[in-house]
Amino acid sequence: MNSYLDSSYKFALIGGGFCLIAFILFGSLGYDAANFSMLLGYILTPVFLFVGIRFFKKYYNEGYLSFAHGMSVGFLIYMGIALVSGLGILIYLVLNPEAFETLKALKLQVLEVNEEMIKNQVGEESFAITLKNVQQMKPLDIALNDFLWKIVPGLFFTIIISIILRKNKI
C-alpha cells in the first residue's frame, strides 16, 4: 500500500492545486469559477491519471500493471485531486465571502437570463426550486459539487487508463 501512496500523492497534489488555482484565477477575472474549475478538472484528471498510473507501473512495479494496481493508484490520484480542489475551494470561499457572493450572483444571473428556456424544459416548479436552492447556496455547496464532479470522471478515466496500461506477467 505504501508504494501506491508514494507514487500517487504528487500527482494528486499537483492536479488538485491546478484546479484550485484555476478556480481562484477565473473567479478573479469575473467568470463562473466553479464551471471553469470543473471543466479544467475534466481535462487535467485524465492527464494526471495516465501519467501517475504509468509512473507507478514503470518506477514502482517493474513494468507490470494489473487492472487492480491501476484502479488503486488511480483511485488515490482522483480522490486526492478532488480533496485538494474541494477543500481549497471551501477554504478560499469562506475566507473571501465577496468571491462567494460574486459567484452566487453569476449563477443567479444565468438563471434570470435563461428563465424562459429553463421553464420550457423543466417546468415552472423545477425552476422555482432551483432558484430557491441557488439563493440559499453556501460555500460548502460549491466545494462539495466540485469534489463530486472530480470523482465521477476520475473513476471513468481510471477504468479506461487501467485497461490501456495493463500489462500482465507472462
From TrEMBL:
The chain crosses the membrane at residues 12-31, 37-56, 76-95, 147-165. Keywords: Membrane, Transmembrane, Transmembrane helix. This is DUF4199 domain-containing protein. It comes from Mongoliitalea lutea.
